[in-house]
Write a structure and sequence with these properties.
By secondary structure, the chain is mainly α. The protein is 42% helix and 0% strand. The chain is elongated. The longest helix has 23 residues, at 7-29. The chain is built from 1 helix and no strands. It starts with 6 loop residues before the first helix and ends in a 26-residue tail after the last helix. Pfam families: ATP-synt_8 (PF00895). One of its GO terms (cellular component) is proton-transporting ATP synthase complex. Keywords: ATP synthesis, CF(0), Hydrogen ion transport, Ion transport, Membrane, Mitochondrion, Transmembrane, Transmembrane helix, Transport. It comes from Geotrygon violacea. GO terms for molecular function: proton transmembrane transporter activity.
Length: 55
């Protein structure tokens, strides 16, 4: 069964992960987000209890 032979596929997987980790990922992480988070304080809404008709 040739699909169980890890000889060519392990090297391909290893090289692809190294390429992603060392080349592509730092380039992607260097981008600044278009919408940076704001420093606004969150407002809490006052909730009203539900007026049940049978109580």
């Amino acid at each position: 069964m040739p699909q169980l032979n890890p000889n060519p596929w392990f090297l391909i997987m290893l090289l692809s992960w190294l390429t992603f980790s060392l080349i592509i990922q730092p380039k992607l992480l260097s981008f600044t987000p278009t919408n940076p988070p704001s420093n606004k304080t969150s407002t809490t809404m006052k909730t009203m209890p539900w007026p049940w008709p049978w109580t």
